[in-house]
Structures are given as structure tokens and as C-alpha cells.
Amino acid sequence: MEDIVVQPPQSATWQVHLDRTMWVGGVRGLMLQALHPLAMLGVWQNSNFQEDPFGRLRRTADFVGRVTFGSPEEADEIGRRVRGIHRALRVRDPETGRTHRVDDPELLLWVHCAEVSSYLEVARRGGLGLSERQADRYLYEQRRSATYVGLHLDDVPGSCAEMDAYFKQVRPSLRVTPEAVSTVRFLLWPRLPRELRALSPGKPLYFPFGALCYYTLPGWARRMYGVLPEVPQAAVTAALKAFRLGLNSLPEPLHDRAFMPATRQMLQASRERLGAAGYDVGKGLKGLTDPRRWPRAGR
């Protein structure tokens, strides 16, 4: 299966990354990443994030998709592209006057950990039934994804305990900068890109989604931000479960319209390769979370 997709249907990664809570996890991850001052400055100084927030989320989805469901060649290609972009970028710290590389391993590790921990925690809280062993397995598998951005496998947390220890270590260096607050407020009420301006009348419907992403942040992160008043976490969990139930009920072709055309093409190619290998793709990639749809040799 290694020559068909990077992460096979038997992996824990497949379970998490096909869950529709990934959209909440992605925005939560951006909010969490913003708490690292240098990482936040890197985004602020080198991207058009506030002009095209959906574009960044879709590009992240494309990367995650390719290093999960893509072929090894597709994953290698996007990895080279991302590393090349990061290699050329710098971050200037106005407080110290120092210039830092965007591909500094410390910054790359923070972005990776904030992202994958968000995917995992939101999916489990939303109702994805992963055991502790499977959760550990997911983080262990995600070490491979981290290598595509330039990190060394052995430097990346590979279990829930290691991830908890990492956050405990890094928390003293986190703080709420004006850029971080601006980013969170923007994610709660983003400016629609030009091609989506026709959806402006429905923009108020976005706020509950943004608030859900915010309220799934760890308590310590919400206390640091203080952007929204606290609400009962039981209500947040119930809302997340309802969101997950609703989005997971969408047919795969309809859900996939949210992705960039190139991402959709990659996912279709993945379905075709898996079908040729004996997997039952009649219900799409998401259907392959059911082991009964695997070839006999894969059971």
C-alpha cells in the first residue's frame, strides 16, 4: 500500500483526517499557532492571510490531503514546494531587531504540534471513537507528515504523553500579541475573498462556527486570549458533536466542493488507485474507514 497512498486506510491518520471536524480543528489550530510570537509574525509579515483566510485554510487542507491520501510522489512534490517557500522567507522581530528563518525547526515544530493536536483533540471530543492507543498511533504517524516540512522524525512528539510534555515546555514562551488578538478576531468574523462576496448575506452564520473553533481551544489558551466570555464546556461539546454529525452526513462529492480543484483531482486519483488495488470505493474515501471495504489481505 505504500506505493498507492502515503497513509493507508488501516492507519489512525485515515480515521482522523476523513472526519469533518477537521474544519474546526484547522481553524482552532490557526488560533493556537497565533500564540507563538515569532510564528505569528511569520504569518503576518509573509502572507496575505487577512485578505484570503479561506485560501490559507484550503491550502493547508491540500497539504494535509496530499501527505495523507496522495501518492508518495505527490507528497514528496508538495513537501519540496513548501520547504522551498519557507527557505526563502524571513521573520523580523521588531522587539529585538533580529531576523529569523521561517524554517527554523522551533517554529516548524510549534506549527506542526498546534495543528495535529487540534485535529486529534477536536475529532475525539466530537465523537470519533479513538482509543488512547489509536490516538498515540495517530501522533506517531504524523511524525512522517512533519518530515515533509523539514523536521526530523525523532524531534516530533509521537504520543499523547509526548505532546502534553511539549506543550508544557513551550507554554512559558507563548503570549498574546496584538497580531494574535487581531488574528483571532478576524477568524471569528473574516473578510470574504472577492470570489465569495456573493455569500456575504450569509456571513452572520459563520460566527457560530468561528466561536465553536475558539471555544474548543485549551482552557489556558482561552484564558490568555479572553476574546469571548466563557460558556459551559458541556455546551461546546454538544455543539461540536452536532456539527460533526451534520457535516459527516454530507455526501463526499458535495463536501469536496470546499476544496481547491487540484485537491479534488488528487482525491479522485486516490480513489481510483485504491479501487484498482481491491478496495471498495463505492462510498468514497470516507467509506474506507469501514474495514469491510478493504481487500481480504488488508483485513
TrEMBL record:
It holds the Pfam family MPAB_Lcp_cat. Residues 14-239 form the ER-bound oxygenase mpaB/mpaB'/Rubber oxygenase catalytic domain. InterPro entries: MPAB/Lcp_cat_dom. GO terms for molecular function: oxidoreductase activity. It comes from the Bacteria. This is ER-bound oxygenase mpaB/mpaB'/Rubber oxygenase catalytic domain-containing protein. The lineage of its organism: Bacteria, Bacillati, Actinomycetota, Actinomycetes, Streptosporangiales.
